[in-house]
Design a protein that fits this description.
Radius of gyration of chain A: 22 Å
Number of helices of chain A: 11
CATH superfamily of the largest domain in chain A: L-amino peptidase D-ALA esterase/amidase
Order of helices and strands of chain A: EEEHEHEHHEEEHEHEHHHEEEHEEH
CATH topology of the largest domain in chain A: L-amino peptidase D-ALA esterase/amidase
Shape of chain A: globular
Number of strands of chain A: 15
Structural class of chain A: alpha+beta
Distance between the termini of chain A: 44 Å
Largest interface: A-B, 71 and 71 residues
Number of domains of chain A: 2
Mean pLDDT of chain A: 91
Strand content of chain A: 25-35%
Oligomer: homodimer
Largest sheet of chain A: 9 strands, mixed
Chain lengths: ~425, ~425
């Protein structure tokens, strides 16, 4: 697996476009398109929130129908959630116009929205936007980058990543290069359950739909579902993975070496994007990584790791560079899984030397100067060793800052 | 039931004292004692955090032993959590010295601590403090008020309440006045599970221990367990209710009219203290009340009501007076219980006129001026009508402010 440039247009046959449709934001792009010149197998995971935005309901139907897809239309500014029948109708009309402009079946069009909940999207602006996007679409890396910028809301940086792997060729003659690339956006209402806010991944791999869905569903558990900015699971969480088969690899139709190679690259893409989202959480100044080691089950390890990065008190202490390590123990303790508090070791990781906060459940005197130095870095890693088994998990979050409060005290206006 | 003055010394036979023992804070009181001149039945509920502070382990043993108790010693500044065997030994020594000074069995002494996790309490200062407390104890209302101040940490106001009820007299001759009074402290790491941070309630009622425990356990579900400041369930949560029987009422030995009267008063005390804790949450400028109406089960109603006041995004929007009502719907949606999003009505309550944010799951245009006016008040009430059944629940929280981040970014130092 090697890192390569670009995002959703890195793989063969994928095009992207962006435009300023004036949905809600002024003076910036707010609509993006991804288009594949070949129909794609698609896998998706969606929010578990009972209140699902209209585009989530639309995409679920398309993905679960088993049909191939060819395009995604995304807007930022308005989430099209809590919008009732009118909201669903806007999805229908968006797909119709995109289908007409691109010359494809409207049911091959996926839709994504992100922004304020409870406002209706002006459909005329969407329609004008789709016409522009269809005309502007390009297979360049730059077009992908611009698309990743158009889907941002309070994000401060766009999020893209891409990798290449070698897989056996379809014609049996050696191997071919397969590319996977993706983009995503955060950065508030981030506590994904089944999937994250908006993430779009494209690949030119040939792979069965069922295996693509299996890989996607498994991978989100250890990537997007392991980040939290504010504990609020969005109404719009959507991850879509589209595979158009243009790389020319022998179609991945069963688990085995090729599937494993593809799985590892897709997981790396998801992990890259998830970490970018965590570190760009609203108001964040630091990426916080919480590792849990030696837990009894994988799921318990995940729950404990997430509890630490989810704790407002841990997040505020990291912002304040205050080594108030009892809060980490406390967050492990109320997470749910049973453990013996008398065997827990909590460590603040350093590049050369660690700070052991607590050993066997007892907080020890520690090197305050080194702790301050490590807490002053852009990335802070806390390791909780439960000494109970062989399972481990990692979660990613950010600090809780004045700017988080500022951003969310006045988001709508 | 009538409201009366005072707190833990309002009931007959109860004494209180406070002193500045210099445990960690300077220039303020930081130790409190409650003492009853008669042995008391005691009920208690404690944190469900796997990491339990030493005084929680101590109190659980005393309460579960079935023995009567006569005193509580509380310190603020250091929580005596994550302190291992040394921490438990400090409880033992504290009980020993209190028993000796008060002339009672050390096992009749309950202990409470609140403050920083992971520091050892200087036992010599505790011992000096206990000697002072035993000398100073008084049955005045003022002594109770001073005790409620000594247990504060980041609280900005002390929390006390008391009520009186009439119950049948023990001698069968009419009724007697029974008093119940309590004090508690918040105000961070507040997301009680089974009980709140520290709460102490005293009554001169005569009541069986098992009924006292039954009432206490039931009441916390709708009072202390329904508040949240930051979602962090503390290692030290403790609620103790002590009944010394000095009012002269016929001992409440079964459920019935007298039990119901006592239950209602105890519930009112717990609700008063819980609301005081929520409105004095760290950095809070407002009390936020979340009512859920017409839900299918009581527990589901509680979960939904809590989810709204627990959401960082709802809390930040209330601080910013931004009527971003989709966040309320979102918080209901990820709480867990199933519901039909198309039947939900969310209302911002006004004294004369309400603002209907959303009806049948769709956000409607609303009177922005009135919404701003209602969001500018010291208390904000959000009502979510699920239209699914007959159960309801209320939860209390506060807004998320710059000061919360400030307080918790630099608490230890």
């Amino acid at each position: 697996m090697i890192k390569t440039a670009g995002s959703v247009t890195a793989a063969k046959g994928f095009y992207a476009a962006s435009c300023a449709a004036g949905i809600k934001y002024k003076n910036r792009t707010d609509m993006a398109m991804i288009y594949s010149d070949e129909p794609c197998e698609v896998a998706g995971t969606f929010t578990t929130n009972m209140v699902k935005a209209a585009p989530v309901l639309w995409d679920r139907e398309v993905v679960y129908s088993g049909k191939k897809v060819q395009a995604v239309i995304v807007n930022s500014g308005i989430a099209n959630a809590a919008t009732g029948k009118e909201g669903l109708d806007i999805c229908r009309q968006t797909a119709d116009i995109a289908g007409a402009e691109l010359g494809i079946d409207p049911d091959a069009v996926l839709i994504g929205s992100t922004g304020v909940i409870g406002m209706q999207i002006p459909i005329d602006r969407i329609k004008d936007g789709v016409v522009q996007l269809a005309k502007k679409k390009a297979a360049t890396l730059e077009a992908g980058t611009e698309a990743s910028k158009a889907i941002m809301t309070t994000d401060t940086v766009n999020k893209e990543t891409a990798y290449q792997i070698e897989l056996p060729a379809a014609d049996g003659d050696g191997s071919v290069t397969v590319t996977i690339g993706g983009m995503s956006k955060g950065s508030g209402m981030i506590h994904p359950n089944m999937c994250t806010m908006l993430g779009y991944i494209t690949t030119d791999a040939a792979i069965d739909k069922s295996l693509l869905q299996k890989a996607t569903s498994e991978i989100v558990k250890d990537t997007f579902n392991m980040i939290s900015v504010d504990g609020d699971t969005s109404t719009n969480d959507t991850l879509l993975v589209m595979a158009n088969g243009k790389a020319g690899n022998a179609c991945i139709a069963e688990e085995g070496a090729a599937y494993n190679t593809f799985f590892a690259a897709l997981k790396q893409i998801c992990e890259d994007l998830a970490i970018k989202m965590a570190s760009d959480g609203e108001g964040a100044t630091k990426l916080v990584t919480s590792k849990v080691l030696h837990m009894d089950t994988k799921e318990n390890a995940r729950i404990l790791a997430r509890s630490v990065i989810h704790s407002s008190l841990v997040k505020a202490m990291i912002f304040g560079k205050d080594a108030n390590c009892g809060r980490v123990l406390c967050a492990l303790g109320y997470a749910g899984p049973e453990f013996d508090p008398n065997t827990v070791t909590v460590t603040l990781k350093g590049e050369e030397k660690d700070v052991i906060f607590c050993e066997n459940g007892v907080v020890l005197p520690f090197d305050e100067e080194l702790a301050l130095e490590l807490l002053s870095k852009d990335a802070v890693t806390l390791v909780s060793d439960m000494h109970m088994g062989e399972e481990e998990a990692t979660a990613w979050g950010c600090d809780l800052t004045y700017d988080y409060v500022k951003i969310n005290g006045d988001y709508r206006t």
